Amino acid sequence: MSRLAKLTIPLVVLVLVGAGAFAYLQFFRGSDTTIDVSVLPPIAQPGSDPATSDEATGVVAAGFDPVDEGAEAVLESQDGGSWTEVGTGEQDDKGHVEFVLPPGSDPSAGYRVTGGGTTSAVVDGDQWGDPDFSDEFKGKALSDDWLTRGEGFYNPEGLRACSAASGDAEKVSGGTLGLSVIIDPDRTDETCEAKKGNGQPAGTFSYRLNGQVMTNNHFFKYGVLAARIKFQEKQGQHGSLWMLPAISESTTDSGLGGSEIDVIEFFGDGVKNGGLASFIYKLTEDGSKKVGGQLPDPDQYLAGKDDSWFEDYHVFSVEWTKTEYIFRIDGQETFRTSEGISHQPEFPILSLLSSDYELENLGGDKNLPQTMNVDWLKFWQAG
Predict the structure, then answer these.
(1) Please, are residues 15 and 23 in contact by the beta-carbon 8 Å criterion?
(2) Which string of DSSP letters, residue by residue, matches 121-166?
(3) pLDDT for residue 262 is more than 90
(4) 28-32, 221-225, 249-253: segment of lowest average pLDDT
(5) Of 31, 146, 168, 336, whose CB has the highest number of CB atoms within 10 Å?
(6) Are strands 163-165 and 208-215 parallel, antiparallel or unpaired?
(7) What backbone torsions phi and psi does residue 331 show, to the nearest 5 degrees?
(8) Dihedral sign of CA atoms 49, 53, 55, 61 in order
(9) What does the pLDDT look like over 121-151, one tens digit per residue?
(10) Bond prior to 369 in cis (omega within 30° of 0)
């Protein structure tokens, strides 16, 4: 069965009138509402501790046309021949509703969504199967599926004159990958003159090493990429899950040359508007253009007042199709765009980078090291 289903059902009422009277059919105008329903892989798993990805839960996403913001939608699952209500939600201003499935949900169940006088077609729950790539970061070292990106490379042109990627800032322990910002032990007797993006001085700082890894010859095109991450606390560096194209071609078309896809970035606690951002860099005739940015009110995606981006884990994901990118946190949609769609294979990157322009926000070397922990990373290619 297709991952996407549509169905509009007209309402029919049979009315019986009086003893020995007559029966007739009254046809009300059929609902004009259509419902698109898609089932996503397990991409929701908030929690304070590392956990196996088998405990993550799937997500059912629905889209209503026409939009009726605030209108209720109901998700049901099929158990044999009967239907059971799984959850309810409300359409957002674009007609979208996400339902996070309860833990332990039957992956072979069928699902349907009702709302607006319409019931969707039934969609299969087990559509993605096993991921095409998965790492739970077990053991004591990264596997050969990963490489350090930019090992030992200080990059003034990229506004990282004071930092370089290093395997020394990567550690696998306790079922997680830790990517850190640490003082460069080989340059403790030196200082670095940092500059802002406009070329103005940003201050004098210690040289530091950054954790940054990329998959080693593991690429995908279209599907879902997800990682369960607990970010660093302090400003002065930003943790990221992102992708770059596996090809290198001189072009102004992202379809041919790919796009940088920044699934999520976190700039530290206390940053105005919450510090979380999702965006892409699409290719244009005038160079690379940024689409997206800081998420408005990102704390709305937290589980409660005791939840945070740097004390708890959350699953950050992107659904990449031939026509759009949809970004989510624990299954909740945060941003989507149809601009700069890459039609090239891309590879995932995990990083904690300290750019020159943000070093002054750390509050001094006493606050190092800072660490971003990754519990697992997976991607599923669309069939």
Answers:
(1) yes
(2) PPEES--S-S-SEEE---SSS--TTEEETTBT--BGGGTBTTEEE-
(3) yes
(4) 28-32
(5) 146
(6) parallel
(7) 85, -10
(8) positive
(9) 999 988 899 999 999 999 999 999 999 999 9
(10) yes
Contacts of residue 9, Cβ cutoff 8 Å, sequence gap at least 6: 30, 31, 118, 119
Amino acid at 166: S
Identify the pLDDT of residue 248.
77
DSSP 257: H
Q: How many CB atoms lie within 10 A of CB 358?
A: 20
- Predicted local distance difference test score (pLDDT) of residue 106: 84
Rounded Cα distance, 73 and 36, in Å: 12
At residue 344, does pLDDT exceed 70? yes
pLDDT on residue 163 = 97
Q: Return d(Cα 120, Cα 382) in angstroms, integer.
A: 22
Chain mean pLDDT for the chain: 91
Among residues 1, 51, 31, the alpha carbon closest in space to that of 230 is found at: 51
Identify the band that residue 80 occupies on the pLDDT scale cut at 50, 70 and 90. Answer: confident
Q: How far is CA 98 from CA 280, 330, 333, in A?
A: 23, 10, 7
How many C-beta neighbours within 10 Å does residue 147 have? 16
pLDDT of residue 12: 34
**What is the distance between the terminal CA atoms of the chain, rounded to a whole angstrom?**
12
Give the β-pairing of 170-173 and 176-183: antiparallel
Q: Which two tokens stand for residue 223?
A: 């599907």
Three-state secondary structure call for residue 327: strand
CB of 181 closer than 8 Å to CB of 351: no
Distance of CA 312 to the CA centre of its chain: 16
pTM recorded for the entire structure: 0.91
Per-residue pLDDT, 24: 26
Q: Over the range 210-237, which residues count as b (16 or more CB within 10 Å of their CB) and which as e? A: bbbbbbeebbbbbbbbbbbbbbbbbbbb
Q: How many CB atoms lie within 10 A of CB 80?
A: 5
Task: Provide the residue type at 92 as one letter.
Answer: D
The structure tokens listed for 21 are 């009277």
